[in-house]
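assembly run, all chains below
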Amino acid sequence: MLKQPGDASAQKLSPWRRAINLAATWFAIGAAVLVIVPLLAIFVYLLIKGAGSVNLAFLTQTPKPPGELGGGMANSIVGTGIILAVASIVGVPLGIGCGIYLAEYGRGRFGDLVRFTADVLNGVPSIVIGIAVYSLIVLREKHFSAFSGGVALGIMMIPTIARATEEMLLMVPNVVREAALGLGIPKWRTTLSISLRTASAGVITGCMLAFARVAGETAPLLFTAFGNQFWSLKLNQPMAALSLQVFTYAISPYDDWHRQAWAGALILIVLIVAAVGAVRIVTSRGMLKGAS
Amino acid sequence: MSGTVNEMNSPDSFNPSEKPATAIPTLAQTATQRKAISASSVLERIRQTHPRSSRMPDAAFAVLIVLTAISVFAIVAFVLWELVDKSKLSLHQFGLAFFYGHDWDPVNGDFGAMPFIYGTLVSSALALFIAVPLSIGVAVYVTEMCPIRLRAIISFLVELLAAIPSVIYGLWGIFVLAPLLREYVEPFLAKSLGWTGFFGGPMYGIGMLAAGIILSIMVVPIIASITREVLTAVPQSQREAVLALGATRWEMIRMGVLRNARIGILGGIILGLGRALGETMAVTMVIGNRPEVSKSLFAPGYTMASAIANQFTEATGDLYLSALVEIGLALFLVTLIVNALARLLVWSITGGRAGRARA
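ok done. output:
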């Protein structure tokens, strides 16, 4: 691993240059190790502290009042699912539509502008999106709601999906489009049934990445979905979410809640890693690589 | 190519007598079938198989797609509008003094965001201080040094780091990192570097230092992935040329690779800064949430994002809420500028299509 590229001349190197070269190599290796270590540490702690607390009660019960032992996060798990479903309904069509525009229509200046705006939206802090959705929906409806939480997360999904869709569509060879148009298929049909379908593996990857990204988001839910200690399946009522529950429990003073926070975090990360892992499998098998 | 189009178009299953259309083919057809058009028989065939009525769905689809594209603008514009609208009260009341006022006193209706701005800047600077060398190191290792087999694994692990939700970083920060800092790292720093004044005072574990470290872990994947993309974009001939002059590997990386990629790397760093400035949950959980300006990194602090997260739902009174929204507005504008700058830098290297951060 430490072999010199110019091995033959290595003998003639001055000690100083050789030492610098060696130091740089070890610095790079050290950096790689230092970056990987926290990742492993987080996973090890999640497994050690979380696995022991995930049991049937945790998966089927709702939270107990403060101070009481036991209880679970069943409502949070379901709530996260519902909020993410709303987010996907908002984010996926808009994201894919925007991606189609960028790849198939927006070649000019306006296209660059849209691309740029999407990237800027990608960088807007999630808490700021939370404030905006709060004033759009929560203030008008006069109460926190699962729907507003879903909208906030959906907005955050758009840029990721749009850029992924664009990249994948651009990889579809033009010959394919020309063949379809040549057969007399209208452009909208060509785009949807030919181009988008050919690129589907990559587009799905993008959607899953966006999904994984927002699945653990907490900040935009603080003042939209708000959280709920009880069962609620109504979209216009406050709803529990795993990430919110983990946050609430982590900063609480109760040991039993700390234990449950680890368990909730484990469930959350298992969901996300499963999504990212599925993405890896899809992209490695799919015809269009390049999403990674 | 046009021959194929011609052949595929020729079966007479399409009814040629349907409409003697005089219509011009749609834009898409002219764009993609320019060659075919030169052959007049093919043009005639296209006209016949594309009656006027079939262009309606095309137009509708185009409008729909353009609308979704516009929606992205609309969202950004709407966010800005809501923030300005909701923070008007505070903007009028305090003006610029809001940004250098030291007192955050909701009870007496006195709001100055200085402690939050200070906390955001210091924690982000600390994060970059730690993350930049590490991420460039990882990127250089992955692109220039490591065996091919390790390359995919390390890239995957670094990407995975970006997929961990910030609330889990926060959880880990509270229960693992903070005790570690309190017991081992902070006493060591106080002993060895206490004379600088940055490492003094009571050691809680939770505080500015913990926030900076957590942020640095979260920022590394962004900077590293962009740096990796930019390094990969450096032509191989640059490396070969420097090596041919007798450079060692490090000299090759420094002169042939890093120097060529420096603007893109800077873009990646700024993008990381954007993420660090706006990061909320993990920081809120480990920074201690005390609105004070303290020289020591051990002391608890408060950031703009965590102020909003902690106080927004509890804010009583319009002025209080308005002040919090104004912090959000400031955060939005700063990250907007930072991200725009970063994108321009990265685009100037990779040409607009690549350079996508998975943040």
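Chain B has three domains: 2-50, 56-86, 93-350.

The radius of gyration of chain B is 28 Å.

not gonna interpret more than that til we talk
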